[in-house]
What does this fold into?
Amino acid sequence: MQRGSNMPVARRKTRLFCMMIMLNICICVLMGVTWNLRRGNRSHQKVRIPSKRFWRTQILSESFWNKEQQRLDFLYNPIINSALSDDSLVVLPDWLNDTGPLNPCDPDYRVLTQISDYNSLPQRFQDFLLHMRCRTYSMLINQPHVCDEPPFLLLVVKSLIPHFDRRQAIRETWGRAGVLANRTVVTVFLLGSTLPLDNFPDLRIMLGHEAKLHNDLLQWDYRDSFFNLTLKEVLFLEWFSKHCPQAQYVLKGDDDVFVNTLRVIDLLEGLPDNKAKDLFIGDVISNAGPHRNQKLKYFIPESVFVGQYPPYAGGGGYLLSGELAIRLYNISQQVVLFPIDDVYTGMCLRKLGLAPTKHTGFKTFDIEKKYRSAPCIYRSLVLVHSRTPQEIIEIWPWIVNPELDCQ
It folds into this structure.
């Protein structure tokens, strides 16, 4: 009797429990529908750029190069780019208005006031800063058809107009164009203009004869100087993207290096696609920073740049894939020109999320003196710096002579 009297109470508790579960389910469903509707509406709304107050909290560097790079980073930010078409949604920070001359190739006289020690800097540095934004220079000598047959390996040599003997030594040895080890090899030499104010003689007639004879010179109308080597790099990458984009690999070097071209081809043969795509190898320098001593060749003042350098391959020579060369050209538009070319290339690589790989075959700081006349040493090397034209001609037979026993 007592058990039967408790049955209605148990049923009521069960019914109440079920109603609470159903109510919770309904609430969850309603919340989910509301959230999806709101998300759907937001997907059709443009992303709003943070307010002016927010941007003013950003710390703007006092060093000129860093400040210029911050400006490019802002303008190439994908979120900001997506909203720039609607000015009502974009509030630009005040410092972006300080953009310099409308024509980037006009002298940028902001540097006189924005770089505190400008007047005390070496003349070469002052010239670089005045024209740091200019990347457009007319081409004086071009070879638009040199890659009509896409090369396996493009050898790119940085040179100066008076260095006729170096270029000829390279043509007769490691830079000989044609078919080598059943692979097509093409060679080009990169030149600017040498000016009387730099104490160079007028060699234009001789250069014109050389260009017609060998069809391997690329020359632009800019002042060929140490601080313009970065410009030479960027102009080459632009040329490459237009006239030789199908080259599989590119080796860049100075005109005083020796390259074991057979070793290069052997290294590249059968390289897996996953390694070939991002290939960039050389004599890598890590944990480096700017030199502050004005007497040094690589001097960079704090008023121009602060920070550490990214890992970079010594500019004497490095090897990369043609595909990566195209990406380097594209990303270089987002990196402010820097007066040291190999550091600049490291900056572009970092912007791509990459870093150069060290290879022991690259000796841009030479090898021990006791080994420099040992023929077999050069069989295992990829590139060594530096060698005279006479030494290059002496070494090359050691590479190609099948009778030399290096076992």
In short: Confidence is low (pLDDT under 50) at residues 1-7, 42-57. The chain has 16 helices and twelve strands. The two ends are 107 Å apart (CA to CA). Residues 155 and 187 are 5 Å apart (CA to CA).
